[in-house]
């Protein structure tokens, strides 16, 4: 069964983009840390926590991309293809932790407001937003079918929207002096982060728990196999994904003895494998052919 190699160029380009985005994010995080210390802004602290999480996420995504490119071995027969899924799950969990911390701190500040200078907050917010936009431009040219690249873009997009929240808080503080603007901006950032974190965690967990690949209907796969000439029954059908780009499946095909006599079991396998590739993009399929008499014998002995 043939396999394409066009993904290698994508992978190398993605690694370069991740490295550049990581450098930009680290510089933005240093700026945010300085601003948070100088101003005491919770919105900047929330954005900093998100930035540091993003830096860790981008670094982990870079490592996962390198590991995923390693070939399969006798010990790891699928290679390290699932490393990026595991990293995506860890990234989502760390984001949820940041959300909880900022939310608790924000609620406390409603009862104990802190005076925040508006001008430094505005300057740092503008510079942070420019850094976020630069990182997004770099990542947008990557493989959007890759879960890690999508996760990295979501992280940086959340940062960009968070920077907008910081800018809004700075403008309100400068024009009205309202002390709750910074706290509300921090909770706005939290509201942006949480749905994305939960969605990414759900998607990664589905792959790790070997759920059916997204976009492939198990019933449709069963019907396609039953439509293959000579196949009488399909059982023990399983679909899963190595990562978000590599679906796999296995099944037992009960074949008519007359069909096998005339065409051979290999012909049935070829037709079934072709149907799976053409209709569902399933390049990794394991099919076992069984005779009708063999299945009846198993049932009788069981």
Automatic annotation (TrEMBL):
Keywords: Ion transport, Membrane, Transmembrane, Transmembrane helix, Transport. Gene3D superfamilies: Cation efflux protein transmembrane domain (1.20.1510.10). GO terms for molecular function: zinc ion transmembrane transporter activity. The chain crosses the membrane at residues 20-45, 51-73, 85-104, 116-139, 151-174, 180-198. GO terms for cellular component: plasma membrane. Pfam families: Cation_efflux (PF01545), ZT_dimer (PF16916). It is found in: Membrane. The keyword DNA repair does not apply. Residues 19-209 form the Cation efflux protein transmembrane domain. It is a multi-pass membrane protein. Belongs to the cation diffusion facilitator (CDF) transporter (TC 2.A.4) family. SLC30A subfamily. This is Cadmium, cobalt and zinc/H(+)-K(+) antiporter. It comes from Pseudonocardia autotrophica (Amycolata autotrophica). The gene is czcD.
